[in-house]
Known about the structure:
Elements: E1 2-7, H1 15-24, E2 26-31, H2 36-41, H3 45-51, E3 57-59, H4 63-76
Parallel strand pairs: 1-2, 2-3
Amino acid sequence: MKIFFIHNTAMWYRIPFFKKLNELFEIKYFFTDFNIIEDIYAESYKNAIKEMERLDYKISGSIFDLAKELFKSLMADLSFDQLKLVTII
Length: 89
């Protein structure tokens, strides 16, 4: 199973969760707003990036960049049987 995981940022406390998911599934992470780490929590996003060195991730600057990256990834691998959109609130 391949998963595209979309989230706004990768806070330090979420990284172990992301790594554990990565052990179980083939995941590509898309983050939409890495600056929120500095804006809200006054921490550097560089620490989060160091912790994610073995994960397949992309940081998008806008929703349009995110859509472009998703489309590019989907077209690069046409082995998807089905595409499901799951929203967790």
